[in-house]
């Protein structure tokens, strides 16, 4: 394990620092996946397995890592995925994240179940951010959230479709975070663990106001603790949703509509048929159905099926700039990162995420240069070294 006196150089370094700083219940909430965590492991392993072709002598003295997507220019093909309850890991984590993302020139996506609200994030954001929404049983709340997102300037909506029911996350069950326990974990061991993490306790527990889910407080007026919010949200996931609901949503939302959580060509085609501008090929970071393929493994068939009808994002296991290049080479327009950004914020706040994103940018530029491409738009399947 690298000494904590050294400067972090990778996603894994930030993960280790976050592990020391966070109470176990919160570290496990981020780090864990569903079931035996096979899909979670596959997400990272599949990226590592994808070999790149080194090319030399191609004049890579001027590199352009930028792309244009959804009406925006991105400094590299990477965005920050929606992460629920971020503000429990660091004081107002979503604000720190949107500032770091803006400084790095990449999109930030706010979760429905974030601690900071759309309105609070909008005040801190320097450029339009994205919003992620679930289909809640309370369709009035869904309509109002869409309206609120629009009025604070959100132009891209990630609509998550892989949460008809919540995956069985064993670490959360063990820690008392799900399966009937309180959100602060098993009371006795949980509270002791908080006091063993005083930096977190002072920053978040005392100063962070982590007990309100900002986007939802208007719809759950009686909720006063995270457990109340979690109970409401768990009861709100709508297992009856079909593509018909997406067609209806398409009529209500005039901005970019991106369907998050497809893994098969059939579902990707159905999303495009329902009017989506893009899809996120994703297994929800291995947190939903353990045993499904990684987003990366599912990507080629989906790219084939869509043939440019909708933009393609991929997530699950993206950790480095090489992975960003691999994602594009395998058929995606861009990649999302989840755990790495929340670990960087949990570890060192806005400065940590800024630094992590600059490391990814550096890696991405190195990967471009050594695979012999000068522009991100030139990255394609020819960069992969198929055995
Ligand atoms: C702690 C945590 C919370 C998450 N919360 C949400 C959420 O609120 N909405 C959503 O659509 N996806 C959520 N996801 C899934 C991420 O958006 C993303 O798909 C996944 O983290 C990508 O995998 P990676 O963590 O390996 O990068 C969450 C993931 C994690 C790890």
Summarize the structure.
With 387 residues, the protein is of the alpha/beta class. It has one domain: TIM Barrel (Alpha-Beta Barrel).
Description:
The protein is an alpha/beta fold. The chain has one domain (28-372): TIM Barrel (Alpha-Beta Barrel). The chain contains 15 helices and ten strands. The strands form two sheets. An eight-stranded parallel β-sheet has the order 3-10-9-8-7-6-5-4. β5, α6 (139-151) and β6 form a beta-alpha-beta unit. Flavin mononucleotide is lined by residues 29-30, 43, 81-84, 111, 113, 132, 160, 260, 282, 284-285, 287, 315-318, 337-339.
Ligand catalogue: flavin mononucleotide
CATH architectural designation: Alpha-Beta Barrel
The CATH class assignment is Alpha Beta
CATH T-level topology: TIM Barrel
β-strand percent reads: 5-15%
Helical element count?
Answer: 15
Q: Can you give keywords for this protein?
A:
binds flavin mononucleotide; 387 residues; two-stranded antiparallel sheet; eight-stranded parallel beta sheet; 44% helix; 15 helices; TIM Barrel; 10 strands; alpha/beta; globular
């Amino acid at each position: 394990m690298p000494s904590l006196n050294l400067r972090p150089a990778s996603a894994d370094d930030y993960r280790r620092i976050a592990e020391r700083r966070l109470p176990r219940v919160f570290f496990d909430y981020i780090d864990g996946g569903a079931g035996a965590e096979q899909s979670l492991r596959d997400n990272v392993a599949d990226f590592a397995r994808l070999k790149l072709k080194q090319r030399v002598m191609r004049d890579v003295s001027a590199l352009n890592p930028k792309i244009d997507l959804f009406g925006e220019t991105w400094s590299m093909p990477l965005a920050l995925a929606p992460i629920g309850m971020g503000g429990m890991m660091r004081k107002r984590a979503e604000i720190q994240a949107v500032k770091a993302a803006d400084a790095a020139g990449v999109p930030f996506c706010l979760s429905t179940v974030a601690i900071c609200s759309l309105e609070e994030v909008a005040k801190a954001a320097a450029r339009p951010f994205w919003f992620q929404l679930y289909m809640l049983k309370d369709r009035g709340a869904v309509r109002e959230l869409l309206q609120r997102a629009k009025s604070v300037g959100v132009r891209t909506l990630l609509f998550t479709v892989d949460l008809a029911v919540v995956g069985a996350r064993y670490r959360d069950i063990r820690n008392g975070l799900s399966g009937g326990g309180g959100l602060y974990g098993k009371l006795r061991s949980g509270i002791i663990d908080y006091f063993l993490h005083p930096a977190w306790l002072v920053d978040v527990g005392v100063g962070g106001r982590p007990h309100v889910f900002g986007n939802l407080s208007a719809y759950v007026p009686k909720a006063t603790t995270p457990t109340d919010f979690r109970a409401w949200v768990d009861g709100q996931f709508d297992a009856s949703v079909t593509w018909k609901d997406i067609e209806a949503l398409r009529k209500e939302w005039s901005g970019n509509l991106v369907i998050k959580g497809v893994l098969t060509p059939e579902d990707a085609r159905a999303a495009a048929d329902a009017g989506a501008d893009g899809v996120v090929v994703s297994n929800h970071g291995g947190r939903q159905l353990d045993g499904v393929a990684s987003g990366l493994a599912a990507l080629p068939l989906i790219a084939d099926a869509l043939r440019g009808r909708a933009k393609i994002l991929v997530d699950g296991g993206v950790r480095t700039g090489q992975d960003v290049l691999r994602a594009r080479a395998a058929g995606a327009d861009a990649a999302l990162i989840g755990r790495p950004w929340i670990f960087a914020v949990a570890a060192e706040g806005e400065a940590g995420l800024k630094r992590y994103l600059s490391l990814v940018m550096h890696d991405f530029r190195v990967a471009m240069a050594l695979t012999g491409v000068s522009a991100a738009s030139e990255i394609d399947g020819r960069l992969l070294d198929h055995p």
